[in-house]
């Protein structure tokens, strides 16, 4: 009896935690949320130093990752940028950036999918998973 | 042995004293590094002067290709660090945090900033100038300097910051991300991990304490 009450209370606690978590991301599926959580860890390890904990960038050195127009318009190029880096100048949020970005060639497609799901849903306005299939397709078309 | 005991006793007293002084104005920052003492006679009495560890004089080339020296920092509090412009690891975080301090004390002539590049091969003055502009540094309060390898790595040792050319490290150089707080007499008064938000917060607090001391 006690055990049952115990189990019930654990379930109800878990349920309320999940309610709180998902109430903040009403339009995001569980898969997308899982990708974003994994992506956050990789983001902290590989991207945060330059682009900042909130994707705010740094001055005119490193662009912010919060420009939703840039993210949406270049969605099919993002995987190549993460894997191979970027040189030359780009315009983000109305400013020109030309610092060379190193790539991270050792990342697997699923790692890149995690990172891009995190970036596009947390900093951008996407509500969907950046899937492995999308990553593989984009990587096949890198410039 | 006796020295050790004395030292422990001194630390205990210092600890107690710091625990009691809840008034902010009484708080003083420690002097870091080895002290020496000199005895002298004043009015027939022997007094002991403490000579705190002092960072040696220096002279480096800055972002405008002008030599600057320790004389330019005389009587100023400054925060110094070691970085390089294409550093992929800790530097951006460290500089982002130092930029916050710079923005808070911008145009306050009591405070200055000094970033040493440890990439003596690539970071020429023009590269440093471009970096400073892009970081958002718009006045002379924050200096970016380069120099001979032995001079830059030598002065790093004097600030107790580890720097080393290392092919296996990201970007080719290994170094610590300390922001070192120096007073107007080139005494080291604090060192804070520039990648740790808690320690950066402490730097803000300690800098305010040091400014009070100089009043």
Observed structural traits:
heterodimer; A: 143 residues; mainly alpha; Cytochrome Bc1 Complex, Chain D, domain 2; two-stranded antiparallel ribbon; 7 helices; B: 215 residues; alpha+beta; Glutaredoxin; seven-stranded mixed sheet; two-stranded antiparallel sheet; 11 strands
Structure in words:
The complex is a heterodimer of chains A (143) and B (215). Chain A is mostly helical and 143 residues long. Chain A has helices at 2-24, 30-46, 48-51, 68-73, 78-84, 109-123, 132-140, and strands spanning 85-86, 90-92, 95-97, 101-102. Chain B has a single domain, classed as Glutaredoxin (3-Layer(aba) Sandwich). In chain B, strand 6, helix 3 (125-135) and strand 7 (142-146) form a beta-alpha-beta unit. Chain B is globular, with a radius of gyration of 19 Å. Chain B starts with a helix and ends with a helix. The interface between A and B is medium-sized, with 12 and 15 residues.
Question: What would you say about this model in short?
Answer:
The complex is a heterodimer of chains A (143) and B (215). Chain A is mostly helical and 143 residues long. Helix content of chain A is 57%, strand content 7%.
């Amino acid at each position: 009896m006690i055990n049952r009450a115990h189990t019930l209370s654990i379930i109800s606690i878990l349920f309320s935690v999940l309610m709180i978590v998902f109430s903040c991301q009403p339009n995001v599926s569980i898969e997308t949320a899982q990708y974003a959580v994994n992506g956050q860890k990789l983001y902290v390890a590989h991207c945060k130093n330059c682009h900042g904990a909130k994707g705010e960038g740094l001055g005119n050195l490193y662009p912010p990752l919060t420009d939703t127009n840039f993210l949406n318009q270049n969605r099919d190029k993002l995987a190549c940028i993460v894997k191979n880096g970027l040189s030359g100048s780009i315009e983000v949020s109305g400013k020109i950036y030309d610092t060379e970005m190193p790539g991270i060639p050792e990342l697997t497609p699923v790692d890149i999918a995690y990172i891009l799901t995190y970036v596009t849903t947390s900093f951008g306005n996407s509500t969907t998973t950046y899937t492995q299939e999308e990553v593989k397709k984009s990587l096949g078309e890198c410039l | 042995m006796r020295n050790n005991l004395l030292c422990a006793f001194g630390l205990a007293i210092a600890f107690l004293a710091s625990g009691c002084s809840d008034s902010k104005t009484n708080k003083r920052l420690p002097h870091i590094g080895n002290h020496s003492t000199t005895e002298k006679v004043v009015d027939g009495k022997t007094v002991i002067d403490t000579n705190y560890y002092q960072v040696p004089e220096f002279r480096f080339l800055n972002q405008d290709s002008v030599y600057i020296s320790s004389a330019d920092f005389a009587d100023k509090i400054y925060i110094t660090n070691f970085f390089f412009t294409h550093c992929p690891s800790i530097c951006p975080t460290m500089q982002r945090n130092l930029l916050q301090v710079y923005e808070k004390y911008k145009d306050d002539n009591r405070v200055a900033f000094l970033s040493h590049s440890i990439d003596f091969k690539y970071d020429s003055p023009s590269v440093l100038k471009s970096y400073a502009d892009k970081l958002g540094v718009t006045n002379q309060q924050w200096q970016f300097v380069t120099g001979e390898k032995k001079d830059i790595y030598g002065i790093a040792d004097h600030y107790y910051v580890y720097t080393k050319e290392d092919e296996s490290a990201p970007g080719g150089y290994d170094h610590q991300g300390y922001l070192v707080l120096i007073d107007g007499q080139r005494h080291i008064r604090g060192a804070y991990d520039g990648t740790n938000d808690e320690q950066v917060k402490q730097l803000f607090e300690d800098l305010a304490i040091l400014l009070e001391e100089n009043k």
